[in-house]
Every structure is written in structure tokens, then in C-alpha cells.
Design goal:
single chain, 388 residues, mainly beta, 2 domains, two-stranded antiparallel sheet, 2 helices, 28 strands
Length: 388
């Protein structure tokens, strides 16, 4: 009887062992067998195109030297795993551009963010990340991106360009030519199917993040130490921004915390920029732009739970359309103005005259928490964003 059952028992043990080994090594095997294709094959010379039908996955154990533009074409996918570092050479011709129909999946973790920076570690020494989607804009049916002349805009409000989570973008932003500039992160007509969460824009020479129309929703954005505006929208952006921290450089220089516009040439252009923003902390400085929040060129906006500290002005409204939308409408609520804010809210008409706002234009709240910790560093941003 023992002889009879031994082969069966041995077979079961061997089978079980094989199952255990397979189960334990599945994830490692998948990572190890991910094919290295296209522009991922030479980490020391990372540039070129991700073509239609191609999925290029970077190796998080390597440092990728960005020596020129990377363009993700229609139908291509660029996958950047947690912990991957991309270091651009000191030139504004180095940038990552996702074209319409292309997708980027840069998904880090709090312990292992995806990192973009420059070898010079100096503001404005590379071009940043640019994404072009198919969502509506108000400067025409479509437009062309300032950098890379890629088409953006359209009619697909739910368009997806991929996912960015726990991403640091440092030392980007520069004036490329007259009226053409790089930002840390530029979102052109990006749709609501795109995920943009836990993004740090650090030490840039231009804007931290700018949204050119589109319907994308963003959350947990830390724009820290950028030379120009921290958070900007224009051209018909209709989305939400939840939990935003902006902070000037340690010497106090820099421009507006939040700048919102509809259309500089035609304030009535549709779709009208009309985002909803909540849980906002804006930390200013002693020099530079006086406005924490500047709204103009016909933009609409709703604000809730805002902390403003160390700015000469809190909200500055410019232009009849923007003022009419906000004046007396209680669309700015639960704001804490620190004692160093000289003017809480001001308004100037299209013709340049001062407008007296109704008392219910905004409401105050002394215990507003803003991005999570009033004027202190919020827990969600500590560590991966560089904040301590």
C-alpha cells in the first residue's frame, strides 16, 4: 500500500512546490521579461519617438539621459515605472511630448516617485513634460502646442492621455523664443480620462503647471519655487483642482500663486474657463508679484477652503465678465487670509476703474485648512515632493 501511494504523494508535493515557486516569482518574472524596445534600449541616449502600436517600458533600475525630444506618437505608449529617473542634458531641446492619441503612464509611489530633472540642476535647463489631448478648447477647434508644434483640442471631453501619479518635475521651464515658453507640466486640451495626481513642479524658470483648455481634473499638486506663476489655466479649461500647494522661492521671488484666464483675445470665447478649486494653500514672499490669485480675461471659477499667506493681495479680479460672475455670488468661500495680506480682494473693470464688490462675494473661515495643514507643509506632500 505504501508503495502504491508514494508516487501519487510525491507528484502532489512536486506539483504544489511548482505552484508555490510560480506564485512567488510571478511579478518578478513579468518585470524581467518585459521587452526592452525602441528608445528604451539605450538609457544613455534617451530620445526619439514611441511609434504607433509600440509600448516602450523603461527600466526603473536605470537612469535615462534625455539628450533630445521624446515624442509619443498617436497609438504609442510610454510606460515609466515607479522609481525611474530621467535626467535631461542642459538644453531646452530636451523634453517629453505626448501627442494626440499617444499615452504616458508615469506612475510612482510616495516611496519611489518618478523623477524628471536636469543634469545641471539649474532652473530652465530642460523643457519639461507636454501632453496634447483631444478635449475642447476655445481658441479654435484645434490648436498647435507652443513647443513641438503638436496638434491639440477637439470634441472628446473624456479623452485619455494616460496617467501621471507621484511625479517630480524639476528645473524645467524656459523662454524658448518670443512668446513661446516651456513650463514644468503643460496640459494642452487634455481630457478628463487622463489621471494627474500627486505632481510636484519644483524650481522651474517659468510656470509650474499650465492648462490650455481641456477637461482634465488634477489633484495634490505642489508647485514649489518656480520663477513665474505656480498654477495657470486659460483657453477654456473646465475641470477640478483639488488640494493645491504653491510656495515661492526662499528669497520670496516669483509671480502669482494661481492665475486664471479664459481667452486673452476674446473673453467671451466658449467654452468658458470654469474650474472648481478646493483645498488650496498659497504661500507668498516679500518681493515679486503682489497677487496670490489673479482672475481675468473672462474666466469663471469657484473656490472653497483657501489659505492665503504672505501676499499683498489675496484675490485680484480684472475685467467685467469675471467680476460679474463672482460679484455677490458667494463663489469664493471659506478663505483664511493671514494677517500679512494687506488687501483681501480687489476688482478692476475692463475700462480700468475700481469696482466695489458686494459683501457676499466671499466668505472667510479662520480655521480653514487649505491644502491640509493651513500654512504648514501638508502630510500628503512630505517626502516624495522634497518637502520635509
Amino acid at each position: 500500500m505504501k508503495k502504491k501511494h508514494f508516487p501519487i504523494l510525491a507528484a502532489l508535493l512536486i506539483s504544489g512546490s511548482a505552484l508555490v515557486v510560480t506564485s512567488c516569482s510571478k511579478d518578478d518574472d513579468e518585470i524581467a521579461t518585459t521587452p526592452v524596445v525602441g528608445i528604451a534600449q539605450d538609457p544613455n541616449n534617451f530620445k526619439g519617438e514611441v511609434t504607433s502600436g509600440q509600448v516602450v517600458t523603461l527600466d526603473p533600475t536605470k537612469v535615462y539621459v534625455l539628450n533630445g525630444p521624446v515624442r509619443v506618437k498617436d497609438g504609442g505608449k510610454l510606460v515609466i515605472p515607479a522609481g525611474t529617473r530621467i535626467v535631461a542634458t542642459a538644453t531646452t531641446s530636451s523634453y517629453v511630448l505626448v501627442e494626440q492619441g499617444g499615452q504616458i503612464y508615469a506612475n510612482g509611489t510616495p516611496a519611489s516617485p518618478v523623477s524628471f530633472t536636469s543634469s545641471a540642476a539649474t532652473p530652465g535647463t530642460w523643457g519639461g513634460v507636454i501632453i496634447c489631448g483631444k478635449a475642447p478648447i476655445n481658441t479654435g477647434t484645434t490648436g498647435t502646442s507652443e513647443i513641438g508644434t503638436a496638434m491639440y483640442g477637439g470634441t472628446s471631453a473624456a479623452d485619455t492621455s494616460g496617467s501621471l501619479t507621484y511625479v517630480r518635475i524639476e528645473n524645467a521651464g524656459a523662454d524658448f523664443s518670443t512668446n513661446v515658453k516651456f513650463n514644468g507640466l503643460s496640459l494642452f486640451g487634455v481630457g478628463s480620462g487622463t489621471k494627474v495626481e500627486n505632481i510636484a513642479l519644483i524650481n522651474g524658470a517659468e510656470d509650474g503647471i499650465q492648462l490650455y483648455g481641456g477637461t482634465v481634473n488634477v489633484s495634490n499638486i505642489a508647485a514649489l519655487g518656480n520663477a513665474d506663476d505656480a498654477f495657470v489655466w486659460t483657453d477654456g479649461w473646465i475641470g477640478t483642482a483639488s488640494t493645491i500647494l504653491t510656495q515661492r522661492r526662499t528669497n520670496g521671488t516669483g509671480n502669482t500663486g494661481i492665475k486664471g484666464m479664459n481667452n486673452a483675445s476674446n473673453p467671451a470665447a466658449t467654452p468658458i474657463s470654469s474650474p472648481s478649486l478646493k483645498n488650496i494653500t498659497l504661500l507668498g514672499g516679500t518681493t515679486g508679484e503682489s497677487n496670490a490669485i489673479s482672475l481675468s480675461s473672462g474666466t469663471y471659477a469657484n473656490f472653497d477652503n483657501v489659505v492665503v499667506s504672505n501676499w499683498a493681495k489675496g484675490f485680484n479680479l480684472t475685467g467685467d465678465a469675471t467680476i460679474t460672475y463672482l460679484n455677490g455670488q458667494s463663489k469664493i468661500s471659506n478663505v483664511f487670509f493671514d494677517t500679512n495680506v494687506t488687501n483681501k480682494i480687489t476688482a478692476t473693470s475692463t475700462t480700468g476703474t475700481t469696482v466695489t464688490l458686494l459683501s457676499n462675494t466671499y466668505t472667510e473661515k479662520s480655521d480653514a485648512t487649505g491644502a491640509g495643514n493651513k500654512t504648514g507643509n501638508p502630510a500628503w506632500a512630505i517626502g516624495w515632493s522634497g518637502l520635509q
